[in-house]
Design brief:
Beta-lactamase; single chain; disordered N terminus; Spermidine Synthase, Chain: A, domain 2; 385 residues; 6-stranded antiparallel β-sheet; 10 helices; alpha+beta
Length: 385
Amino acid sequence: MSLTQKVFSIVLIPLLIFSISSSQTATAEQVGVSARNAVLIEQESGRIIYEKGAHDKQRIASITKVMTAILAIESGKMDDIATVSEKATRAEGSSIYLKPGEKIKLEHLVYGLMLRSGNDSAVAIAEHVGGSLEGFVYLMNEKAAELGMINTEFANPHGLDDHENHYSTAYDMALLTRYAMQNDKFKEIAGTKVHRAPAAPGESWDRSWTNKHRLVTGMYKYATGGKTGYTKRAKRTLITTASKDGLDVIAVTLNGPDDWKDHIYMFNRAFVDYELYEIADEGKLKDVEDDFYKGKVKLSRDIKYPMTKKERENVRVKITLVTPNKDWDEEGNNIPEVVGEYTVIVQDEAVVETPIYYEKKKGKEGGFWSIFKNIFFIGAGKIPW
């Protein structure tokens, strides 16, 4: 049974602590950003706080490596020892100076990839994780499709201008970064200032890699991670994540001649204008009065949404529940897991939609008689399950 087929309860709850601004996202004219394409989103909800040509397909240079890094981390091979091919050492551009035949832990390659933007590291990762460059590119595009990066195509693991069919958008790269930042290992690597790796064969000194991302290494105290990029055709590209007072945001710029300042400007505006409001807590819903559902329905997660201080009065919550069937009972027999939808509405636009779950009563098996029964089965040489 779908919610559209049979709906019996709709509860509209005004949240008076909020108000509505004239627009939910800033226009390009309101913010002084030098980049041709830019976007700023909030991590928890994915809300776009600012955008400028955010869906235009463009070359992205080395911010490509965010995808390479998260695939390597998710491969489960971070403790593997990879053998560096001669092809990897011939990669053009920025390098961590790998040697043909060198054996190095995949984890170190990912640090070299993210902190120093090593193109040789990107190829070595791709060959080890994907079996070949072509195999890894396939994985990149599969993950992009999974994440809804509808205006993206990857053709290499590093972002060099060696393929015409390698492009993305500021928004798609923000989607990717939002996903990657949910991974603790990626978050750790992206925010690392300096990493030490074992010396290459024949070298007496361990490698020490300092992150190229100036906002992360001290230029902006709220920065938590990111990735730099540059090619002659793409120009400067940049991803930065930042956090202040519980508000986590992601900035992406493409072709940004003054990108450090662009990101600081967008972050500062967001931290002044927006706050992450808690709308509902995970667990039982308290605003349901219907006799059948009261005290028995729940949310599987906290619901939070970033809003300006002026946003109030017109924010509402809609709770929609399906009509109970005659064969349902309060014990939960025959009741589906999802029985409704919890919707947050801002200025007549649904901004959060999440399922409402029925909390079935736990079985009555247990206590003395259950224990006695299990002892009987075991004594008879039978396993009671």
